[in-house]
Prior knowledge:
- The protein is of the alpha+beta class.
- It is 36% helix and 33% strand.
- The protein has helices at 8-13, 15-27, 40-55, 104-118, 133-140, 171-176; strands at residues 2-6, 59-66, 69-77, 87-95, 123-129, 144-154, 160-169.
- Strands 1-2-3-4-5-7-6 form a seven-stranded mixed β-sheet, with helices on both faces.
Amino acid sequence: MTVSRLAAAELHDVTGELADLLTDTVDGGASIGFLAPLGREAALAWWRERADAVAAGHHAVWVAHAGGRLTGTIALALPDKPNSRHRAELVKLMVHRDGRGQGIARRLLATVETAAADAGITLLHLDTETGSPAESLYRSAGWTRAGEIPDYAAAPSGELRPTTLYYKRLGALAAGA
C-alpha cells in the first residue's frame, strides 16, 4: 500500500476514483456529511470543490492505493485565521468497504499526523459519529475524547445522530502533555 499527498492537479486526475470512494462510503452507512443515496455527479462536484481548496492552500488531501486502485483518503482542513494556524481539522477519513480491516485507515491517520507535525501543526481535532467504528480507531491512535454533541448531524439514512469530538496534540506539545 502507498499513501501520498495530492497536489490540486493530481486530485483532478483521480476525481472519478474519489467520487466512487465517497459514494461507497455513504452507501455503507458512514456519516460523513452526505445523505443516501449520493449520486455520482454530486460526489464529483464535491471533490472538484476540494481541488479548488487544495489549490488555495486551505485543504490537504492524501490517498491510499492498494492492489492498483485507490482504496482510501483523508484530509486536513487548514484554518486561515492568524490565531489558529497551529491547528487543523482532520476530515473525511474514508476507506472503501472492500479495503476495511487491512490497516488502511490507521496508515492514513498516521501519515497525516506526521505530516501535520512536520508542518508545525501542534493540535488536530475532528468529529465523528458517536458509536461509529471510527471511534475505536481514534482512541487506539491516542486521540482524546473532548465531548459529545447530541443530534449533531444526520446519518446517511436521515436520522439525527450525536457526534463525538476528539483532539490530539502533536510535536513538542504532545511530548510535554
